[in-house]
Amino acid sequence: MNRRAIVQDQGCLPGLILFLDHPNPQVVYCALQALRYLSECRWNQEKLQGELGMMLSLQSVIQK
Prior knowledge:
- Interacts with mitochondrial contact site and cristae organizing system (MICOS) complex components IMMT/MIC60 and MICOS10/MIC10. Interacts with mitochondrial outer membrane sorting assembly machinery (SAM) complex components SAMM50 and MTX1.
- Keywords: Membrane, Mitochondrion, Mitochondrion outer membrane.
- By secondary structure, this protein is mostly helical.
- The protein has helices at residues 3-8, 12-19, 25-39, 42-50, 54-63.
- It starts with a helix and ends with a helix.
């Protein structure tokens, strides 16, 4: 229910993006799950794609 408000928070997405580069795979997995849940809200999808570093970090996770 709070997905839209969470994404609007200034520190939420940058923090999750930083966790995508964490050396612990469990931390990366939890960050990916959080991003997945946030992306289920249509309003958030465009915001997530446009977030600085998001796509680059996701590509890095895929390559690992």
